[in-house]
């Protein structure tokens, strides 16, 4: 009896999980489907599901009208660049906070995190003007700086959490074994923190890749990443759902593929410390 | 190599002074054990010597050189941690070789030393395994291996056996003593277990609330404890401490008698009481004796099997030459 109940409960849970999963996935599926329709089919009422003439026309048009690969490259440079610079700053910061905490360490962490609560639009004008003055508008380096700074609190927090899980004894053992600070961090701390570092890197690349507010406001043509590429198709000159969908699909595909292959690492990293 | 001197060393955490001014000399080649109840500052003292904590005032000298502000990496000391603190991402070989790699030692010499340590510690078959694949005893040996390859001026052990089961603990105790006989290097060993202290040490330092209560050989501490704290702490089972009229008969505030120095009889004796719990160890029997009017409970250690039951009447007579006398401050009366 108990087994019957538990197997029925399992079936219900599975059904709920699938429903929620499909609900979350649906917009992506719809975007992908729409990208293979003609503009007329894309806005057809009632909507057409699978029974349409599949075409690659939208992809060709999109690539002709705007250079996908240039945007793609900008996205790669900006997200990877900001992640690497962020790590270079966050590793020493998180090390200090985790292993040499002071009285104000917790406050400092909260303060850093609180900067994420600020509406970005509140500082848009000063940053825009500043960038204009120093010639950073529409440059890769300008975006790398901004994205590094806005994601830094998250990198520091994540690394801090992972570092705290590492027994201090092991670092002290390294010190006793003659390791200087550099060896202690590079030979002992970082290899032990690899799972945490990997998920931090992945998450940060995803955040930077998807970041739209700053990338749209601080770029025009040269440094525009894929977010700007998508936005250029939601133009007021008319709705081109199929082309917009094709552009969106192309923009999210790389990150979707990366996320797919690293999902195990990502989930493990994000629940690290939460589950003993 | 390996003489360590502490000169008026103190340590405070914020407002709290955990080590009041303390002087101690550890001679070359000595096996010194710091022992005391938990929170007595013994681990802190070891960490001060290691350099893992900064001292608040005073001076630490290692081989006559001032080491007070020398970082741990440069003190030439090796430490074995309670948690072993092995590098989980490295093989046993790499763990043991790590300090030599840090010292930028020539690879051939490095391999020679690592192989030698592996042989001495019976680790040869496990060199390619990760620490996670080893048992507690093997991990402990790797930790010791990592310490010995450096040929340090002194070894520091921070409760190294407390994570092992009882049988293994006895084995490792012997192995560490054996190692000390072979290497003849200074060893400082921290434990809360007075049996470990008594069996391993050349010299025991008894600590209490950051202060040194007594320094001496295991038998000195056993035979002539300087105060009631040391008297109660060293020896197992604990020494019986008796206050009141009985002590006054001996011109003392407190008298102490060890459980093994109480003779028992069913018919007659100096003190009368009733048997409580008995612990039969085979070789010895420990009785708890109540209702003597002297102390809440006296412990008696009798040799071999003794047929006494709960509630039986018993007479105890202390061996007078083994009686310890202490004054009102708890200090020994000579």
UniProtKB/TrEMBL annotation, chain A:
Keywords annotated in UniProt: Cell membrane, Membrane, Transmembrane, Transmembrane helix, Transport
UniProt key word Protein transport: no
Topology in the lipid bilayer: Multi-pass membrane protein
Predominant cellular place of this UniProt entry's protein: membrane
Keyword Cell cycle: no
GO cellular component: plasma membrane
CDD domains reported in the protein's UniProt record: TM_PBP2
InterPro entries cross-referenced by the UniProt entry: BP-dep_ABC_trans_perm (IPR050901), MetI-like (IPR000515), MetI-like_sf (IPR035906)
Bilayer-spanning residue ranges: 12-33, 72-96, 108-129, 141-163, 184-209, 240-261
Subcellular location: Cell membrane
UniProt record, GO biological process: transmembrane transport
Residue stretches making up the ABC transmembrane type-1 domain: 72-262
Superkingdom, taxonomy of origin: Bacteria
Sequence similarity: Belongs to the binding-protein-dependent transport system permease family.
Protein name as annotated: ABC transporter permease subunit
Organism, scientific name: Pseudooceanicola spongiae
From TrEMBL, chain B:
Family, as annotated: Belongs to the ABC transporter superfamily.
Pfam family, one: ABC_tran
InterPro entries: AAA+_ATPase, ABC_transporter-like_ATP-bd, ABC_transporter-like_CS, ABC_transpr_MalK-like, ABC_transpr_MalK/UgpC-like, Mo/tungstate-bd_C_term_dom, NA-bd_OB-fold, P-loop_NTPase
Domain of life from the UniProt record: Bacteria
The name this protein goes by in its record: ATP-binding cassette domain-containing protein
GO terms of molecular function: ABC-type maltose transporter activity; ATP binding; ATP hydrolysis activity
Any single GO CC term annotated in Swiss-Prot or TrEMBL for this entry: maltose transport complex
Keywords: ATP-binding, Nucleotide-binding, Transport
Every ABC transporter domain range: 4-234
SUPFAM superfamilies associated with the record: MOP-like, P-loop containing nucleoside triphosphate hydrolases
Lineage, top ranks: Bacteria, Pseudomonadati, Pseudomonadota, Alphaproteobacteria, Rhodobacterales
């Amino acid at each position: 009896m108990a087994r019957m109940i538990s197997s029925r409960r399992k079936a219900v849970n599975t059904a709920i999980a699938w429903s929620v999963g499909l609900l979350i996935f649906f917009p992506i599926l719809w975007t992908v489907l729409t990208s293979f329709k003609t503009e007329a089919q894309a806005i057809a009422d009632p909507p057409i599901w699978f029974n349409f003439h599949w075409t690659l026309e939208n992809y060709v048009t999109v690539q002709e009208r705007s250079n996908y690969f240039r945007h793609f490259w900008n996205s790669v440079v900006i997200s990877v660049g900001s992640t690497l610079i962020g790590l270079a700053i966050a590793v020493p910061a998180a090390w200090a906070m985790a292993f040499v905490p002071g009285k104000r360490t917790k406050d400092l962490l909260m303060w850093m995190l609180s900067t994420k609560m600020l509406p970005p639009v509140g500082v848009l004008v000063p940053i825009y003007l500043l960038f204009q003055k120093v010639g950073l508008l529409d440059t890769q380096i300008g975006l790398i700086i901004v994205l590094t700074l806005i994601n830094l609190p998250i990198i520091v927090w994540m690394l801090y959490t992972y570092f705290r899980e590492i027994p201090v004894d092991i670092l002290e053992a390294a010190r006793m074994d003659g390791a200087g600070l550099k060896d202690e961090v590079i030979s002992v701390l970082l290899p032990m923190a690899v799972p945490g570092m990997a998920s931090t890197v992945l998450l940060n690349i995803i955040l930077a890749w998807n970041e739209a507010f700053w990338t749209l406001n601080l770029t025009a043509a040269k440094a525009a990443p894929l977010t700007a590429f998508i936005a250029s198709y939601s133009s007021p000159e008319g709705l081109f759902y199929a082309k917009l969908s094709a552009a969106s699909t192309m923009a999210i595909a790389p990150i979707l593929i990366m996320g797919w292959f690293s999902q195990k690492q990502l989930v493990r990293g994000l629940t690290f410390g939460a589950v003993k | 190599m390996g003489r360590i001197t502490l000169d008026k060393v103190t340590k405070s955490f914020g407002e709290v002074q955990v080590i009041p001014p303390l002087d101690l000399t550890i001679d070359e080649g000595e096996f010194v054990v710091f022992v005391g109840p938990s929170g007595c500052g013994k681990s802190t003292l070891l960490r001060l010597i290691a350099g893992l904590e900064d001292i608040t005032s005073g001076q630490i000298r290692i081989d006559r050189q001032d080491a007070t502000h020398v970082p741990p990496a440069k003190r030439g000391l090796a430490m074995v941690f309670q948690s072993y603190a092995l590098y989980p991402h490295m093989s046993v070989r790499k763990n043991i070789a790590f300090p030599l790699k840090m010292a930028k030692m020539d690879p051939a010499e490095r391999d020679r030393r690592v192989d030698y340590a592996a042989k001495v510690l019976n680790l040869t078959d496990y060199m390619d395994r990760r620490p996670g694949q080893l048992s507690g005893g093997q991990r402990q040996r790797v930790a010791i291996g990592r310490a010995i390859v450096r040929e340090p001026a002194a070894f520091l052990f921070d409760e190294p056996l407390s994570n092992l089961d009882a049988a293994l603990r006895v084995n490792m105790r012997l192995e560490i003593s054996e190692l000390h006989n072979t290497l003849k290097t200074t060893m400082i060993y921290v434990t809360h277990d007075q049996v470990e202290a008594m069996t391993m040490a050349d010299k025991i330092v008894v600590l209490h609330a950051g202060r040194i209560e007594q320094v001496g050989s295991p038998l000195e501490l056993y035979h002539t404890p300087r105060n009631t704290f040391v008297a109660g702490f060293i020896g197992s089972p604990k020494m019986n401490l008796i206050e009141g009229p009985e002590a006054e008969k001996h011109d003392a505030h407190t008298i102490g008698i060890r459980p093994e120095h109480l003779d028992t009889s069913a018919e007659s004796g100096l003190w009368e009481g009733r048997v409580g719990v008995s612990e039969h160890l085979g070789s010895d029997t420990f009785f708890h004796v109540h209702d003597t009017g002297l102390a809440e409970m006296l412990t008696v250690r009798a040799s071999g099997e003794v047929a006494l039951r709960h509630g039986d009447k018993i007479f105890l007579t202390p061996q007078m030459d083994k009686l310890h006398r202490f004054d009102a401050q708890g200090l020994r009366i000579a």
